[in-house]
Amino acid sequence: MKKTFTLLLLLCLTAISAMAQETNTFIPRYAGGDISLLPSYEANGTRYRDLNGKVIPDIIPFCKDAGLNTMRVRLFVDPSKAPADEIAEGVRQDLDYVKALGKRIKDAGMKLMLDFHYSDTWADPVNQWTPDAWKDLSDTELYDKIYEYTKEVLQEMKAAGAEPDFIQTGNEISYGLCWGPYGTKSPVKASDNWKRFATLLNRASKACREECPDAKVIVHTEFVRNPGMITYFYDNITKWNVDYDIIGTSFYSYYHGDLDDLDNALTIMEGYGKEIMVVEMAYYHAYQCAISGSGKDLSGIYPISQEGQALYLKALIDVLLKHDTVTGLFWWWMEANEYGHTGPQQTTKDWYNASLWDDQTGKVSPALFVMKDFIGEQPTAINAVTAETKATPSARYNLNGQRVGNNYKGIVIENGKKTIRK
Predict the structure, then answer these.
(1) Are 190 and 175 in contact (CB under 8 A)?
(2) Residues β-bridged to residue 330
(3) Helix H or strand E segment including 33
């Protein structure tokens, strides 16, 4: 009888293991940052140092060794056409620049997120200017152009050994993309013309599917501070059958509120059945940014210091881990560092004091090493339950083996046993 029971148990475990591999239900997590200006800093002699003050030859493998697994790079159509003050603030990433940086990221064994701006300059909620070379195109011609441009870029990225794993078809496109010529007073917004907007997105997605079928397409907005706009935007994205895989959001406390605001926004986003990524976030280690809009000053809770920066990130990760479908966390402009500068001018006109390196010492921030906590060990579904419950008895996992927060409702595995949490 004992032999029969043992055999049945082995058969059951084999079947469960095979099912887990076949369905591939375990969703991995990704953490890293936007390092779009790294080559410029390096060219100007910036020195990156570790916690002990030792110079880091290349921060990309350094970040990988610290547990990060993905890097993000922005791409402009023709940054030479951008206004001079915006070039001075980091608008430099043309295709050649991005191919070279993307190859470095891929060669280091990391994933690459490509952020199409579909503009010659910064694209964000209040700036979505059509590239200069496209400004006289009709809507129909523009649909063809965004498809052809996206396709050609991806072909060149692949040829350069820099095929992206994630593709943003637009950056912070909360109110549309490819507005009128630069300086137009009344830009075409998503709320004014959904058919046009959805067609542009779908044409871009079509190129992504054809050239990089394994890559995931991200639609990136920044509505954390406005829950009503989250539903308005993604209801319309659904209505117009926009082809995408991931909801990408920006979150800066000084623009978008506190962590409760983020928690609420993520709950709303979860209703759309997509993965969610925080593709931009940061917190200051010096010289707090001015609070704007619905933003909040959290310096009383998380001091403006490297220690406070790390505490903030830990708290943010705790919020993200409450949501099963949140799979990405990316620090914006993480590489900003003017220390040891030897070039003819600063890399950017103004210092950015919310990066993961200190401009005055060149030393890495402790927060960089907190980023890996979002990823976790990322084992297979069955091993996730066995391996980590021993190390962390209070940890909870869903039936896919994903770690979940204390507010998760449903069947969980906790301390090696199934429990229903209501």
Answers:
(1) yes
(2) 32
(3) strand 30-34
